[in-house]
Write a structure and sequence with these properties.
- The protein has seven helices and five strands.
- The chain is α/β, with parallel strands linked by helices and 181 residues long.
- A five-stranded mixed β-sheet has the order 2-1-3-5-4.
- The structure holds uracil.
- Uracil (URA) binds next to helix 2.
C-alpha cells in the first residue's frame, strides 16, 4: 500500500506548485516531484532564475495511484482530497501565485468537475492568468501549465512549458493580478 507523500516547502512560500499525484520515485522517497517529472521541472526553473525552494509543492492526491492512473482513485475519496487541498492552500501565509500542472490540478483548483466532457482542459487554459479565491477570501493569481510528465512523452510540448514558466518567473515578482487588456 503506497504511503502518503506530504506537501513540501515553507508555508510562507509566495509560489505554489500543484501536481496530480506521486509516482514511483515520490512514493519511494516520500517527497513530491523528485522523479523524472520533478527533475524536468527543476531544469526549467533554473533557466528563469527560480528554484525548487521558492515553492510550496502539493499534490491533489497524496498517494501513488494504482498503475499511476488517477482514474483508478475512488471518486468520493478524490473529492475529499480536493477539499483537503483547498484547506492546505488556505493555511499558507500569503501565497502570490499558484501553478497547477495538468488537468487534475487545474480542475481541482478551479472547482470544476474532475471528470466529464465539459471539464476544462489544461491545453485550453495553459499560460493564461486566472484568479483563485481561497477559503480565506484571498484572491491568488493562477497560471496553469502542462504537467512536466507530458513533455517526457511529447518532447514537442516543452516549448509551451518554457513559455509558461517564463511567465511564472515574471509574475512571481509581484502579487497583483495584472490581466492583459
Ligand atoms: N507527478 C505529480 O503530479 N506529482 C508528483 O509529485 C510527481 C509526479
Amino acid at each position: 500500500m503506497p504511503g502518503i507523500v506530504p506537501d513540501e516547502g515553507s508555508k510562507g512560500a509566495k509560489l505554489v506548485l500543484i501536481g496530480e499525484a506521486p509516482g514511483e520515485w515520490e512514493d519511494r522517497y516520500c517527497r513530491p516531484f523528485v522523479g523524472p517529472s520533478g527533475q524536468r521541472w527543476e531544469s526549467w526553473l533554473g533557466r528563469f532564475g527560480l528554484a525548487r525552494s521558492d515553492f510550496y509543492i502539493a499534490n491533489v492526491w497524496q498517494q501513488r495511484p494504482h498503475l499511476n492512473r488517477i482514474e483508478t482513485v475512488n471518486r468520493e475519496a478524490l473529492l475529499e482530497a480536493v477539499d483537503d487541498l483547498h484547506e492546505r492552500l488556505a493555511a499558507l501565509t500569503d501565497p502570490w501565485l499558484i501553478v497547477p500542472t495538468g488537468n487534475t490540478a487545474l480542475r481541482a483548483l478551479m472547482g470544476r468537475a474532475l471528470w466529464g466532457k465539459d471539464s476544462p482542459k489544461i491545453t485550453d487554459w495553459r499560460g493564461s492568468i486566472l484568479g483563485y479565491e481561497d477559503r480565506k477570501g484571498r484572491v491568488v493569481k493562477v497560471i496553469p501549465t502542462l504537467h512536466p510528465a507530458f513533455t517526457l512523452r511529447e518532447p514537442g510540448a516543452e516549448r509551451a512549458c518554457l513559455h509558461d514558466w517564463k511567465r511564472v518567473a515574471k509574475d512571481s515578482r509581484f502579487r497583483e493580478l495584472r490581466l492583459p487588456h
